[in-house]
Amino acid sequence: MPYCYSVDKQLVVENQSEQTLAARRIIKDHIIHVNGVTNVEITRNMVVATRNARARLGPTKGRTGGREMKQKRKEETDAMHELEGKRKQLKMDVSSLLSSPLQRNCVRSVRKVESYR
């Protein structure tokens, strides 16, 4: 005989599969049956199944994935700050070169030559 249940709106989550909904309902029924979460017996098979599920998620979705993403984001942020510093330094160097009297004369000369072309 198939397991029958009613759909409880508190259990339904958007984009949830039927299997997930059924599993959540079975878990809820078991918790009610044993009179609370603290009375649920955690067996070795449950622990092994949980470990295997996490291994199937892979490094990008499991716990280590969060650390890897944070590390990658930190490296990208550091590289961005370094490039920003280099850009500011280049801007200062160019402005100091352009502000020297000799350089201004050279720039004027180059512009005159380009205007004759």
Question: What would you say about this model in short?
Answer:
With 117 residues, the protein is an all-alpha fold. It is 71% helix and 0% strand.
Notes on the structure:
With 117 residues, this protein is an all-alpha fold. The chain has a domain at 42-116. It contains four helices and no strands. It has helices at 18-33, 44-57, 63-99, 101-116. The longest helix is centred in the C-terminal third of the chain and has 37 residues, at 63-99.
Strand residues, percent: under 5%
| CA-based gyration radius | 33 Å
Uncertain spans: none
**Average pLDDT metric:** 77
Largest sheet: none
Which H/E pattern describes the elements? HHHH
- Annotation field: number of helices: 4
Amount of helix: over 70%
In angstroms, what separates the terminal alpha carbons?
Answer: 93 Å
Which structural class do you get from the secondary structure elements? mainly alpha
Number of strand elements: 0
Estimate the global geometry from the Cα principal axes. Answer: rod-shaped
SSE map:
Blueprint lengths: L17 H16 L10 H14 L5 H37 L1 H16 L1
Task: Throw out a few tags for this protein.
71% helix; 117 residues; single chain
